[in-house]
Amino acid sequence: MTRDFSQFFSGSSSTDLNKRDPSFLESLGWSAYFSQQTSLDQLTQTPPVRVIEAHRTQLHVLGDGIDTLIPQLPDVVVGDWLLLDLETPTKSEPLDRKSLIKRRAPGTGRSIQLIAANVDTVFIVSSCNQDFNLARLERYVALAFEAEVTPVILLTKSDLCVDPATFVQQAQSISDQIVVLALNAKDADVATQLADWRKPGQTLAFLGSSGVGKSTLVNALTGENSAETGAIREDDAKGRHTTTRRQLHQLPGGGMVLDTPGMRELQLTDANQGVASVFADLTELAHGCRFRDCAHDTEPGCAIQAALAAGEIDHARLQRWKKLVAEEAFNAKSMLERKAEARSLKKHIRAVQSTKRR
Ligand SMILES: Nc1nc2c(ncn2[C@@H]2O[C@H](COP(=O)(O)OP(=O)(O)OP(=O)(O)O)[C@@H](O)[C@H]2O)c(=O)[nH]1
Ligand SMILES: [Zn+2]
Prior knowledge:
By secondary structure, the chain is of the alpha/beta class. The protein has three domains: 6-94, SH3 type barrels (Roll); 100-259, P-loop containing nucleotide triphosphate hydrolases (Rossmann fold); 279-357, Ribonucleotide Reductase Protein R1, domain 1 (Orthogonal Bundle), CATH 1.10.40.50. Helices cover 33% and strands 21% of the residues. The protein contains twelve helices and 15 strands. The strands form four sheets. The chain has a six-stranded mixed beta sheet with strand order 10-9-8-11-15-14, sandwiched between helices. Helix 9 packs across helix 10. The protein is globular. Guanosine-5'-triphosphate is lined by residues 156-157, 159-160, 184-186, 208, 210-216, 261. This is Small ribosomal subunit biogenesis GTPase RsgA. GTP binds at residues 156-159, 208-216. Residues 109-266 form the CP-type G domain. Belongs to the TRAFAC class YlqF/YawG GTPase family. RsgA subfamily. It is an enzyme of class 3 (hydrolase).
């Protein structure tokens, strides 16, 4: 089976997609970003496929005329593009990612878990009610910036709220670089309201706490009950049933939406850059502090404290920034400590083994 991939080398850009129908690969998210990493020869030998589902031991991949399961590959995650080695699938080559969403795994191990690759827009969903929490929204926005994904804040249940505008205003205070929309997720025209992002070739994802309307929105986009019916039961290592439902659904009109639960215990993962972007003004101000490691507390010559005293910055926002920076520092430190521990454990084992041999 030989396929013609030459169209991807004619300089077609994503804007062209608005004028013509996407090819099947393009509807899966294939773009110049990926074709540039390959050659026509390579594409013919090893056709590109996108990972749309990750099971425990297998990956479900989709490509032009390809819909198959291959064995898991190390560090490959839903949304990745692979050049599929048809004879030896385990030799398939992953392509460089446009974006990568990751998180620190829940629990005490704090290892890093890859969530999804090559997402273009992440809808950060909260409701216009007690779920609304500015600090959590900021955390999600920082994570999106870090992942190089465009964040859009959706405030659902506007129909149940007296004054959605006050929630929009608060959320907008996080950054003027992001769009904030209040909506009723059950509205018949939700898909139209999200039309700016739901475009051919675009991959969307949803983040937010339980019950805020993520499934409702996914279903509105896919036009079916995929978000609920997509659950896959698998046995984990201990023989327990776990639900792994992290998959990409194709959207009518040629786009993809990632449906992934378990994004609740979200912690920042090496998100220094993301935090700095969300709080760009404070980060910039802090450059003016006398001491480089200023804690912006009681240090002399602190530019942050000076701005606070002058009423130029908001106290609550400053506190949230400090909390995120501290959390980030803690995470980074515990990583280094973990690595150091692992090294000294190895040394210890080697020492014990060598004394035994003697
Ligand atoms: N009135 C109203 N109800 C909504 C809105 N968004 C969601 N709901 C309702 O809120 C409930 C929870 O919505 P879901 O879409 O299941 O929420 P979810 O975020 O997917 O929750 P998890 O699957 O637990 O993560 C459902 O009963 C929805 O019908 C909204 O904008 N307005
Ligand atoms: Zn300072």
